[in-house]
Structures are given as structure tokens and as C-alpha cells.
Amino acid sequence: MSITADTASSGWTAPERRTLGAIAAAHAVSHLHILVLPPLFPLLQAQLGVGFVELGLAITLFSIVSALTQAPMGFLVDRIGPRRVLTAGLVLGGAAFMLLGATLSYPALLLAGAMAGLANAVYHPSDYAILNTEIAAPRMGRAFSLHTFAGFAGGAVAPFLMLGLAAGLGLAGALVVAGAIGWAAAAWLWLTCPADPVKAARAKPVAGQPTRVLNGTVISLTGFFVLISLSFGGMNAFAIAALVASGSMGLAMASTALTLLLAGSAGGVLIGGALADRFTRHGLVAMAGFGAAGVLTIGVALLPMPALLVVLVLGMAGVLSGLCMPSRDMMVRAAAPPGQAGAVFGVVSTGFNIGGMIAPPMFGWLVDSGRPEAVFLVGGMFMLATATMALAQELARARRG
User: Fold this and answer.
1) CA distance linking residue 80 with residue 126, whole number of Å
2) Rounded distance, CA 30 to CA 352, Å?
3) Which residues contact 198 (CB under 8 A, 6 or more apart)?
4) Interior angle at CA 98, CA 92 and CA 99, nearest 5
5) CA distance 186 to 169
């Protein structure tokens, strides 16, 4: 793999630090808002007098609205500017939970789910468009890694934060505070990030780069994101159930295994940022990481292992998959036509929504059918497919010169 020129120019400027801090905070809020409702479901059930199926419909609405609007939001980002769109998304997401906290009714829950889903659609296209413009190329990989890590952190604190707020302030108070966090992030972003241009200027095409958003590379990268979501979304949701159902370990050890898998992914993201800045062959980095993670995960399914070894192997698989994420983002950045980063990231991020809708019933069926070990077999196979697609992307890039 070739090494980028000017990797020694690694000093962050003050504007870059301010921008990255605000964008990381916004991404943390996005993942926090994704997980505001699930920890509160028992309290919401008692308050609203509905079943868990009815509560789950709010999450379904969130996912559907986000999936349908993420690509259009990407085009809107390129048209009117990412700071405007991202700030509006933070305000809308905050309003969704504050409205629910103020009314505590089932119609408000459904409306909040739809509003939060629309707000969620702005984050990836806006975040990446701002980073792509405001961070210098030699530091882009690390910026992407810190952005992703902040999202992981926001999701990790969500259950503890929401239950703690509910214990101290009540259900309504917890929801209002969750919304206020979004408004605080919106204010920080608006005051920190550079203003959008009055009229978005479209950059001139560069020789050898695609000029259409929906080109073959972007469509294949969307499939790449679907595979990532299928592999990790299903395993994250059902790893504990699969390990317990297979008789490999008890609930406490299975929870430890999932925790180490997720923590390994977060740590791997930070390692991957440095790799993405050092090497230009991002497809090969992604292929190696996803491929090795897939082999380890399939090993959990097929090889007899003591419980402690399973925990360690899944933790290592998390590290290897996490270090691919900044390279994944750099692959998308390279595929974006000039001035259309928001649209491209909006389109390919739809792959996460597609995979997120398919994976839960698929992996749940594997557990219900009496083959819980297949959760890791199928998850590992999706990782190998992801690695294969990453290699195909790299070979196509090499052919384009």
C-alpha cells in the first residue's frame, strides 16, 4: 500500500478543532436520540397503556422515515449548505422528544418517532459534507474516525443517561432533557462551524472523477453499506441471545462478550483513523479488516471454544471491523463528484437503513429456529462479502487510474 504524501503535516488548526468538536457532538446526539425511547419502553408502556408492539411502531416509523429521506437530505445539503440542514435536524430532533415529554400521549409518541426519523436523516450527509470541506486532506481519516467514535459514545451512554434522568426527573423530564441536549448541540454547531455560502457553488469537475451522484461506484458503495449493516446490525442485536441459547455461556458472560465486541469496534475506529491518513489504498484496508473479522466470527460459530476465548475472539473481531470504518468513509469521499459530498453520503448511508430493516427479523429467525450459532456464521459470511466488495471497489479504482 502506498503512503500519502504530506502525512507529516498532521498538526490540527484551531478552526479544524472547533469544527470537529461541534460535528462530533452532533453525531453523538444523533446516536443518543436513536436510543432515547427503547430504555424508556417499560415506563412508556405503563404511562400510555399500550403494548410493546405499539411502542415498537414508533421505532419502525423512525426507521422508515429516515430511510426514505436520507438521500433527499443529501441533495438538500449540497443545495442550501450543510450547517443549515444539520442545525435544523438537531432542532427538529430536540423538538420531537420535548413534544413527547410535554404531552405523553400515544399519538405524540408516533409523531415523535417520525420527526426524529426525519431529523436522523440529516446527520450523515451534513456531517461528512462539513468535514470534507473544513478538514485538511492529511487529517481527514482521523477526523472521520473521531466523528464515528463520538457516535459510538453517544449510543453507549444513552441507556444509562435516559434511565438516570427518568429516575431523577420522571419520564416527562427525561424526554424534555433529551430534547434540550439536541438544542444545545444545535446552538454550539451554529456558533462554531463556518457559515454556509450564500449560494452553493458547484466545483468544476476533475479529470478522471465521476460527475453524476448516482453512478456505478456510488450504487455499489450503497450495497457495501447494506452488507456492513447486515453483518454488525444482526450480531449486535442477537449476539447475547445466540450465545445463551447455544449453551456456550451464561447471560453475564454473553453480555460481556457483546460489550467487548462494541468496545473493540470503538477502539478500532481510532486506530483506523491513523491508517486511513497513512495509506491511500482504503479498499485494501477495508478488505483486510472485514475479512479477518469475518474469519474470526465464523470461527466462533464452527469451532469449539471455551467461553473466555469466545469473548476475546469477538473483541478482536470488533477491533478489526472498527479500524475499517474510517477507510470506508474515505472510499465514499473518493467517489463523490466535486461539490456533491452531501448527496453521495446521503445515498450510500441509506444502505444502513436497508440493512437495519432486514437484519433483525433474519437473525431473530435464526435464533428461533434452533440454530443460534448461525448468527455468527451468517454474520461472518456477510463480513467476508463486505471484504470482497471492498476489494472490488479498490480494483475498480485502480482501473480508473
Assistant:
1) 11
2) 14
3) none
4) 85
5) 23
How does pLDDT run across 69-78, given as a tens digit for each residue?
Answer: 998 999 999 8
Q: Where does residue 208 fall: left (phi above 0), alpha (psi -120 to 50 degrees), or beta otherwise? A: left
Q: What is the DSSP letter of 248?
A: S
State the CB neighbour count (10 A cutoff) for residue 9.
10
Torsion of CA 146, 329, 138, 29, to 10 degrees: -30
Place of cell 426527573: 169
pLDDT digits (tens, 9 = 90+) for 163-204: 999 999 999 999 999 999 999 999 999 999 888 765 544 545
CB-based contact 72:118 (threshold 8 Å):
no
> Which residues lie below 8 Å from residue 370, measured CB to CB, with a gap of 6+?
none
* Residue corresponding to grid cell 450465545: 243
Which pLDDT band, with edges at 50, 70 and 90, does 209 fall under?
A: low
Q: How far apart are CA 290 and CA 234, in angstroms?
A: 16
- Find the angle CA(326)-CA(76)-CA(112) to the nearest 5 degrees: 85
Are 163 and 171 in contact, with CB atoms under 8 Å apart?
no
